[in-house]
């Protein structure tokens, strides 16, 4: 549906034209005006896609109206009405950009043809405008991505073509000396609030606004933003002269602009004389400086020229460190004590590194290797494999964003290992009794003794006796006797062996002793039991 404005100072013509238009296009919204001035006022209130106006009118004629008509951001068509006496005016109107004109009195058939022509033209222009809008949106989406790709390749020291190098200088807005800032936003590991999406563009805008008064060119790109808005990094290159005090003030201002559960830190490279040639080195320097925030949770701006973190420094954990952790786990230390053990481990690892600090990821990797070796040396429950625990441990260590957080994670992992080890020992004891029973059932005919069976399972005889009775509520000798007598009943019922033969097959070398034991248990001698059992079977 189109909005249409009819302009004519003759009421009869205006009413007739409105009626004709309603008949031809009942869906159109029709407005009217009696002169150019009134029509101009209405055009300022709402947009019209089609304007049909007379030329000769009081107060403001149609030509002046067209000249003063403000430009529209939507396709618009202007049709003039003219008498034969004003044909020269109509020609002038065409020169001003009028779409078409009609001679008075207006013929309905001709009017319909002009309407159709105007509608086709409006539709074509609207489609073109829509396509241009889509292209503009696509360009606005693609251009930052392309700009980001070029700058990332530059920062990672990848070769750029001459065209890309030239474009890069245009993107930066400068060449020559400058510094690189690496700003990191990280959700506090103790935060309970939900992270905000798309926070990095806000940080970029705030940082550039803070740097602007310092003068010079500024160029920033978001390096990455983790899913869910938990962390993000922003690279800024500038040739502005900024002091350490100014950078600290800028960090504080940005910190105040974000939710309190986010932490803003900034790594600063050394100033280089040729930013375009030294970008990769500057990026590494700023990143190395920024990594010191892992060790120092108070400072927020870190300079490359004074950082303690060394890219070359390595950590070499050895058997001493593993033994310390093994002792803590096996002895089942409480969580508070485990935290102290974790702190002692980190202190030793860092102390042996000298005066410098290793990259946080290298320290974390060393701890990961230590815990992995420790888990392999321990007995784990059957339902949990070392590989499964290792994956969970690696994920937990990777989320530690500070030395304190790493200490907490180590203590938690030691606690989990201690619990798993204790559970495995319990499982082993539970399974051991079944193995003992199976062994007795298989060797009941042998000369079994408490000492001989305890030795098979590497137990002290006294401990084995207590363990056996605690699990079965019967002592070892009684259980062996029960097994043998149960088997004796089966043999007496099913075989024709002599009593002494039955006794011998059960491990009883003295048939009289066998007879006494059997009668004590069942109140019958073996011979009497056999006779009664067979009689009952025949009956």
Automatic annotation (TrEMBL):
Source species taxonomy? Bacteria, Bacillati, Bacillota, Bacilli, Bacillales
Q: Does the keyword Transcription apply?
A: yes
PTM sites of type 4-aspartylphosphate: 54
Task: State what protein this is by name.
Answer: Two-component system, response regulator YesN
Cited CDD domains: REC_YesN-like
PANTHER family assigned: ARAC-FAMILY TRANSCRIPTIONAL REGULATOR, HTH-TYPE TRANSCRIPTIONAL REGULATOR EXSA
Kindly give the SMART domains that the UniProt entry links to this protein. HTH_ARAC, REC
Domain spans labelled HTH araC/xylS-type: 434-532
The molecular function terms in GO held by this entry are: DNA-binding transcription factor activity; sequence-specific DNA binding
A Pfam entry, by short name: Response_reg
- Please provide the Gene Ontology terms (biological process) for this protein: phosphorelay signal transduction system
What residues does the Response regulatory domain cover? Answer: 3-119
- Write out the entry's keywords from A to Z: DNA-binding, Phosphoprotein, Transcription, Transcription regulation
Signal peptide bounds: none
Q: Which InterPro entries match?
A: CheY-like_superfamily, Homeodomain-like_sf, HTH_AraC, Sig_transdc_resp-reg_receiver, Tscrpt_reg_AraC-type_HTH
Question: What's the source species for this entry?
Answer: Paenibacillus algorifonticola
């Amino acid at each position: 549906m189109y909005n249409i404005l009819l302009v004519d100072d003759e009421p009869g013509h205006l009413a007739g034209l409105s009626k004709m238009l309603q008949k031809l296009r009942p869906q159109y919204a029709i407005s009217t005006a009696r002169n150019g001035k009134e029509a101009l006022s209405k055009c300022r209130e709402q947009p019209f896609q089609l304007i049909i106006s007379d030329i000769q009118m009081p107060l403001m004629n149609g030509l002046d109206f067209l000249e003063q008509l403000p430009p529209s951001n939507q396709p618009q068509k202007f049709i003039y009405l003219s008498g034969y006496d004003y044909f020269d005016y109509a020609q002038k109107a065409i020169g001003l950009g009028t779409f078409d004109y009609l001679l008075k009195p207006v013929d309905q058939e001709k009017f319909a043809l002009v309407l159709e022509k105007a509608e086709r033209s409006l539709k074509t222009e609207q489609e073109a405008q829509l396509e241009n809008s889509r292209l503009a949106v696509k360009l606005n989406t693609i251009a930052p991505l392309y700009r980001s790709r070029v700058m990332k390749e530059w920062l990672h020291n990848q070769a750029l073509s001459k065209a890309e190098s030239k474009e890069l200088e245009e993107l930066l807005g400068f060449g020559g000396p400058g510094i690189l800032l690496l700003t990191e936003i990280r959700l506090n590991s103790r935060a309970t609030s939900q992270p905000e999406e798309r926070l990095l563009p806000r940080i970029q805008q705030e940082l550039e606004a803070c740097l602007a008064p310092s003068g010079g060119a500024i160029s920033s790109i978001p390096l990455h933003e983790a899913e869910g808005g938990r962390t993000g990094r922003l690279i800024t290159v500038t040739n502005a002269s900024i002091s350490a005090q100014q950078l600290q003030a800028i960090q504080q201002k940005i910190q105040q602009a974000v939710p309190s559960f986010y932490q803003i830190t900034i790594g600063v490279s050394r100033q280089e004389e040729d930013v375009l040639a030294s970008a990769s080195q500057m990026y590494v320097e700023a990143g190395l400086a920024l990594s010191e925030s892992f060790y120092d949770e108070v400072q927020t701006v870190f300079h490359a020229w004074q950082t303690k973190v060394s890219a070359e420094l390595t950590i070499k954990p050895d058997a001493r460190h593993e033994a310390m952790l093994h002792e803590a786990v096996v002895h089942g230390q409480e969580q508070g004590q485990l935290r102290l053990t974790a702190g002692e481990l980190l202190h030793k690892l860092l102390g042996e590194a000298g005066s410098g600090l290793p990259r946080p990821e290298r320290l974390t990797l060393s701890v990961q290797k230590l815990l992995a070796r420790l888990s392999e040396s321990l007995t784990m429950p059957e339902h949990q494999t070392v590989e499964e625990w290792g994956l969970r441990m690696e994920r937990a260590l990777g989320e530690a964003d500070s030395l304190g957080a790493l200490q907490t994670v180590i203590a938690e992992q030691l606690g989990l290992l201690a619990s798993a080890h204790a559970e495995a020992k319990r499982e082993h004891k539970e399974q051991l009794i079944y193995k003992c029973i199976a062994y007795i059932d298989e060797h009941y005919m042998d000369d079994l003794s408490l000492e001989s069976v305890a030795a098979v399972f590497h137990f002290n005889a006294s401990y084995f006796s207590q363990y056996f009775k605690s699990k079965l509520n019967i002592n070892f000798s009684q259980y062996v006797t029960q097994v043998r007598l149960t088997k004796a009943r089966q043999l007496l019922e099913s075989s024709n062996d002599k009593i002494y033969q039955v006794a011998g097959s059960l491990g009883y070398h003295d048939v009289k002793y066998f007879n006494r034991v059997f009668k004590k248990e069942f109140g019958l001698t073996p011979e009497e039991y056999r006779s009664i059992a067979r009689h009952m079977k025949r009956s």
